[in-house]
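To fix ideas, we close by showing one paired sequence and structure record:
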Amino acid sequence: MRQISIISVLVLLPTIILAEGVVSKIYPIVQTLDNANKVQLLDETGELTTSSVETNLTQISDKKEEYKSIKIVERYADNNDGTITDNNTSLVWLKDTSCLGKQNWENLAIQICHLNGNKKCQKQEAKFEKMKLNCQDYTIGNFTDWRLPSLQELISLLDYSFYNPVLSNTIGNEKWGIVAENDSFLSVELDSYWSATTSATSRTYAWHVHFTDGNIGVSDKKYAKIYVLPVRSHRY
C-alpha cells in the first residue's frame, strides 16, 4: 500500500473542511523546506510565513474541537408548558394542534377565549353546545394572549420540503410523524387549519392552510368547520 507523508497530505489539502459549509483557516502550503518539519505558508495578507508541521496540525485539531462544541439550533423548542416556539420566527404555538377541534369562526372565537381563561366566554357559550378543552401538557388560562394566526404566520410554520404533512420534526431534518420522540407538536391533522385572514373578495370567507400539502384556500366562516391552531407573539 502506498504511504503518503503528513507533509504531502497538507500540500494536497491546504484547506480542511471541518463541518458542512465550514472551512478552517489553515493557509496553503507553498513549499517544504530542507528541514522536513518546516513548511512555508501563505498568510491572510498573502505574505510567506514559516510554520512547523506540528503547529499546523495543532491548528486543525483545535478547530475540530471548536466545532464539536457548536450546538445545533433546532427548528422548534419545547417550552415544557404545552407550547412550542418556532426558532425561525419566535412565534409561540399551542403544542397540541387539534385539541380545539374543528370549528366555524364563531365557535373558534369561544374556544380561544376559553384557552385564555376568560370567564366571559360562558355568556357567549350559552348559544352553543357545551365545549370542553383538554389540551395536552397545557393548563387553560396559563397565558391570556392566544389568538388565531394570520395566513402569513400559519404558512411560516410549514416546511415545503416535506409532504403529508408539510411540517418538520423538532430539529427540522425530516417531516413530522416519523419518530414520535423527535417531534415537538402533538396530534397534527392532515387537514385544513383556519387563519385570521379574511378573503379580500368576500368578507364572509377566510383563508385556511391544508397541512397535508401546504395548499391554501378560502371557506365560509359561518358554515365551514376547520381545525384551529392558536398562536402567541412571544414566549412570555
